[in-house]
Each structure stands twice: as C-alpha cells, then as structure tokens.
C-alpha cells in the first residue's frame, strides 16, 4: 500500500470513528441525524469511487448546514482538496458561506479553508483577499492567516509585503532583555532575513548601494548567521572599492560557517585582485585552507604556487592536502598535475574521478535532504529559507 493511500485510509478511519463516537453517544430521537449520517457516507462513497462531482452534490444537497454538521462539511471539503479535487472543495466551502445560519467565528474558519483552496488552485489574489479579512476579524485564526499570506507574497516575490507580514508574526521584541527565540520564531526570523536580502539584490541591480546596505543591516539583525547577507555586503564593498571591508565580511563567513568557504572563494579572489598582493593572497589562502579544510581553498593555493613557477611545492602541498582530506576535487587536481605522470591506468582513474565529480550533487538541504548542483537560498522542496548548504566530505568541498 502506498504511503499516500495509507494516510488516506487512516484519515477515513479517524473521521468515521469520530463521527460514530458522536453518533452512538447522542440521543437518537431525531431523524435528522440518520439523514446526515447517510448523506455523509454517500458522499464518502462517491469520493472513494472517484466520482467527486456526485460527492459534492450529495454534500451540498443532502447534508444540512448547522453547527453539528459543520465539521463533516469541512472534513469532506479538505479531503477533496488534498485529493486534488480543488473545484469540489471550493464548491463545498462556498456552499457553507451562502448559509446565514453559521456564527461569525465559524465563518472565519470557512474563509480560511476557502483561501487554502484558492492557493491550491493558484488563484492567489482571491486567497489574499479572504486571508486579509481573517487577519482583520479573527484573533484566533490570525496566526494561520498571516502564515498563508507570507507564503503568497513570497511566491509572488512581493518582498515589501512579505516583510510586513513576517514582522507582524513575530512577538514584540524587547531589545533590553532578548528572550531566546522559539523554533517557530527562528524560522520566521530566518525568512525575514532572506526577504531583506532579496530587497538588497534588487537595490544592488539598480546600483543603489546605500539602500542595499540599509536592508542588509536588517537582514543580519534578524539572522546573524545568514551567509547570504554577508556575501551581498561584501559584493557591495567591492563595488565601492573597499576591499578591506569586503575581506572582514568574508572572514566572518569562513570563521562562523566553514561549510560555505567554497562559496566565498570567488569574492576573496576579487578582493585580493584589487589589492594586487599575490603573496598576501597566497598566505590568506593557506591560512584559511588550514582552518576550514576546504578543498576549494587548497586547490586555489596550489594553483597560485604553480602560477608563481613553484610546481614542486604545488604538488607536495596538494598531496599533503589530499592525504588529509581525500575529496574528489583534490584527487582530480592531483591527477591533473603534469608531474603525476601518464599511462592508460592513470587516465582511466582520472576519467572516473571526473565522471564522479560531474555526477555528484554539490548542495543538500539539512531539512528535507533535497540535493542539486545549484545553491538555492529557498529550498525548492521543503520551502524553508537557508537550509541548503554546500556538501562537505569526499563527494563535496
Ligand atoms: Zn528542503
């Protein structure tokens, strides 16, 4: 049995058990109850036999709308949405809204469900309107509605609005006595930090460095470990001809998050290029390589030695590094050295190593395990910000 089917069956069992419990322990004098139960099972049967239209008609025409039957309507509507029958879910939820008999609190719940339907259907403007109403009118459901709104603005790349919503979701800050953020709050702060980075990127593209720097300060304030914010600040520093400042920022990244060393290497190179100090660059590379054990830094240092005409030192340096950290990158660089020699056996090994390198993913999500060859700040699989990091170890940097 597939996982999805199993979940579906478990859901049915839970719903039926809940309903039956309510059914058996209630006085069975009203015929209305019997009618409600039969239309509920009829609806479920139609759903199970892949006849969603018939299921919708049964629920709308035969199941009365009142406080007792509301959970059943909602359960069937949500079931339809999770099964991908979004139109059916929308009709069931709209039917509930057309009945004036429900109290306001329950109507807000239906609004929220209908907004979820619209999100699933990709009709985001309608979902947005419903969610804004829920935020304004329901204290109980405000948190859920704001979370959905943040998601909508994020997918529409409306960063200004995404920031406003994320700030509303955070508890008020006490700057004098900073309480440790809860897990949920940490996620919001991390997302917020990336929203500011997105704005910074826009400013950067317009060469508006002043505003870019301002939003990057906010990005670092909400997540002091956000590598992307440091990299963007360093990029701006380089554009403003401030290589020392750029190097400070880049050193912060390698000190705090060595796993991102390979990502900041190109910016290091650029900063030292504007200094013009090759010796200083080689020193810095060797120091950082020793500290972070990053293959990319070992390789860059060896290439610099070779460029200076010191091929033997480059080879010895690479061999020591490879013994210490036998990564595919280092092994293939050793095999690339002319001193490594030639011959069919060596060429074969070289080919295999290159193939292994080309096939391996370079980045993986800590949260869901998604892997790929491109660094995404927002995981395309689990949609969390800042969870994807370069892969470390034999297969990686
Ligand atoms: Zn993920």
From TrEMBL:
Signal peptide positions on this chain: none
Encoding gene (name): lapB
Protein name as it appears in the record: Lipopolysaccharide assembly protein B
Cytoplasmic membrane side: 25-397
Taxonomic source organism: Zhongshania guokunii
Membrane topology: Single-pass membrane protein
TM stretches of this protein: none
Record bears the keyword DNA-binding: no
Presence of the UniProt keyword Cell membrane in the record: yes
Positions annotated to bind Fe cation: 365, 368, 379, 382
Matching InterPro entries: LapB, Rubredoxin_2, TPR-like_helical_dom_sf, TPR_rpt
